[in-house]
Write a structure and sequence with these properties.
This protein is α+β, with helices and mostly antiparallel strands. The chain has 2 helices and 5 strands, in the order E-E-E-E-H-E-H. The protein has one domain. A hairpin with a 5-residue loop joins strand 2 and strand 3.
Amino acid sequence: MTTLCGGGTCPTVYRTDRNTFVVQGYTVTAEAAGLDLPAGEQLVEIPAELIAEAMKAVS
C-alpha cells in the first residue's frame, strides 16, 4: 500500500483483504520501548512519514 522505498525491503504498510493493515518495520523490544507487552504481540518501529503517506493513501 505505502512504502518509502521501491523494493519492499524497508518499512511498509500493507492493506489486507480483511480491511486491516499489516506493518513491516524494524523490530523493537518492549524493554527498549519502555512498554509492558502482552504475550503474542511484537513491536515494530516505522518512520512517522510512512504513517502520513498511508493516511493519504486511504483518504
